[in-house]
Design a protein that fits this description.
Layout (H helix, E strand, L loop, with lengths): L4 H23 L22 H8 L2 E5 L3 E4 L7 E5 L12 E6 L4 E14 L4 E8 L2 E7 L4 E3 L9 E9 L1
Antiparallel strand pairs: 1-5, 2-4, 3-4, 3-5, 5-8, 5-9, 6-7, 6-9
Length: about 170
Amino acid sequence: MRRGPRVFVLSIGCLWLAAGGALAAADQPRAQKVDPAQTTLVEDFAYPGAGEILARRGITLVKGDGHLLLVACGQPGLIEVMSTDVPHDTDPDALHYCFKASVPFGDLTLTIPNAYQVKGDDHSVTATVTVQNQTSTVPIDKNTWTGIGISSGPDPATLLRLTAKP
């Protein structure tokens, strides 16, 4: 039995449709199975190594933008904090905490109890403190010490936040 041109064209048309359908199916996104235990990646700005710092220095570094970092004191150009009493501070330079701004701005939420002085660097620094359950923001003088807590009144202060701007 001899097939004519119409059967040939029809056969090629069917192949064309089948190939097009397969290509169209390949272009469709496939449904992915999602593991319900899998969490999304969200930056929480938690301070790296905060647990170790709490154990060794007795202060809590909560979170920040990564531009104010706790460093060893003794170099110029640091933001410095002095405290009268921080339980469990085993550092050789106990009760003295230094922070370096790695760029022209920085923000760090922390807890340093019994803070009484903050020394600014070349930035415009503010310190958020709480004294007798009253929270306030104190501008810190550049490259000199500014009294907070018992250095500016009769009650101790807890340092809650440092912010540096150009």
